[in-house]
Amino acid sequence: MKSQHPSILFGLALFAFVATALAQTPRPVPAGVTAHRNLSYVTNGHERQKLDLYVPEKAGDPVPIIVWIHGGAWLSGDKNGCPPLNSGYIPRGYAAASLDYRLSGDAIFPAQIEDCKAAIRWLRAHAKEYNLDPTRIGVWGSSAGGHLVALLGTTGETREFDVGENLDQSSAVQAVSDFFGPTDVLQMDAHAVPGARLKHDPANSPESQLIGGAIQENKDKAARVNPITYLTKNAAPHLIVHGDRDPTVPHHQSELLFAALKKAGVPVRFHTIKGAEHGRGFAGKEISEMVASFFDHRLLGKKTAAADWPVAMTSDSVAVMEPERPGQGRPGANAPAQDRAQGGGQRPTWQQIVEREDANRDGKITRAEFKGPERMFERIDRDGDGVLTQAEFEQGGPPRRN
Q1: What dihedral do alpha carbons 12, 14, 20, 22 form, nearest 10°?
Q2: Which residue range forms the structural domain that includes residue 182?
Q3: How far, in Å, CA of 105 to CA of 217, rounded?
Q4: Are 164 and 118 within 8 A, CB to CB?
Q5: In whole angstroms, what is the distance from residue 17 CA to residue 189 CA?
Q6: Which of 121, 92, 142 lies closest to 297 in space, CA to CA?
Q7: Looking at the domain assignment, is residue 399 inside a domain?
Q8: Is 244 left (phi over 0), alpha (psi -120 to 50) or beta?
Q9: Can you tell me the distance from the alpha carbon of 66 to that of 90, in angstroms, rounded to the nearest whole number?
Q10: What are the pLDDT digits (tens) for 268-304?
Q11: Residue 209 burial by CB count (10 A; 0-12/13-18/19+): exposed, middle or buried?
Q12: Alpha carbon of 268 to those of 97, 237, 243, 289, 306: distances in Å?
């Protein structure tokens, strides 16, 4: 009898998708900021090839930009969460952007990095229109987003992933803030923390879905995903932050990237948060001030603490947990890995999902109503009738189909 673990994983992927959608609704734009939402960075492209751009209402000289790239195991998430906007970077002299990209249910790799590069080129092509400085672009992302920003940082000298429009513009970036992003996916299971539930080698894992096949059986394709594959001495400076108890992306993944950047002579700081998990334990001023110091030095040219960092350095701190919001419990050690992969919180109820997804309010979610990747819907639809019901939701997805 075949294991039902793959069906459970996809059921959790649905929970993760909806939890992210529920949590990351666009915040009100702060005073003094102009928002340009849903800008298409590919003409007549996929519905996810769009970005939101936030610029200061009043600015003299063109401003540098920090681009946020969301996580979600490459199979969920959206651009509505934008830390550079929500953390007050724009009043300090920046613009901010947050972009969507095609998920693994829409297209396999390299579609994701092709989209990110297309967005960078689009921003440069439209820099004058929005008063942006095209020579100063930083990127910041977590988890799958951390992987994509690292890949942007190491592929500035290759044109392999530059396809489509605005090819007269560079997709290179000038600074990378990578929060717990995967690097060499072939080594993830070998270095997982004890008790980690999410397995990366199986054909249904997020990494395998990303490349379209089991990673250990497609090592050449897996190598293309690895930012280290493209690394040169001219890669962008990196700030890497990772928790040493991460049950989803092993801390070792960032160790590999740091070692490679150091060997190449690329400026890099690798900060370990002791006791932190996958996006849990990153609260407190130390981390936020470190990121701000890094971007202020690299993009604004300020004499911050980052100016005195060695070319390659390591540091550490102790986890600081975020305060719980009303109605939100902390995901503990026994929480599903995919729940924690999205930053935690209680699993949404069926009623919450229906409220968001069920357009005609009939208590069911059709393929047309479902906002996640089509392939995810097909995997979770137990009876294959094109409708998700409460019973299917509570059973966690279909048995594995031959």
Answers
A1: -120
A2: 25-318
A3: 20
A4: yes
A5: 23
A6: 92
A7: no
A8: alpha
A9: 9
A10: 999 999 999 999 999 989 999 999 999 999 999 999 9
A11: buried
A12: 23, 6, 17, 16, 10
Residue 369 lies in a domain: no
Which of 96, 12, 87 has its CA nearest to residue 342? 12
Measured between its terminal Cα atoms, the distance across the chain in Å is 12
Residue 141 sits at φ, ψ, to 5 deg, of -160, 165
Structure tokens at 71: 């996580």
Per-residue pLDDT of 347-392, as tens digits, reads 555 665 666 666 665 667 876 667 666 666 666 776 777 788 777 6
Q: What is the pTM of this model?
A: 0.79
SS3 state at 342: coil
Whether 343 is in a domain gets the answer no
The CATH number for 284's domain is 3.40.50.1820
The rounded distance, in Å, linking the Cα atoms of 78 and 88 is 20
Q: Which of 293, 290, 257 is nearest to 273 (CA)?
A: 290
Sequence-ordered list of residues with C-beta below 8 angstroms from that of 54, at least 6 positions apart, any chain: 29, 33, 34, 35, 36, 82, 84, 85, 90, 95, 96, 97
Residue 349 lies in a domain: no
Provide the domain count of the chain: 1
Copy the structure tokens of residue 317: 């701190």
DSSP label of 102: -
Q: Which residues contact 118 (CB under 8 A, 6 or more apart)?
A: 41, 42, 49, 163, 164, 165, 166, 171
CA distance 77 to 69: 10
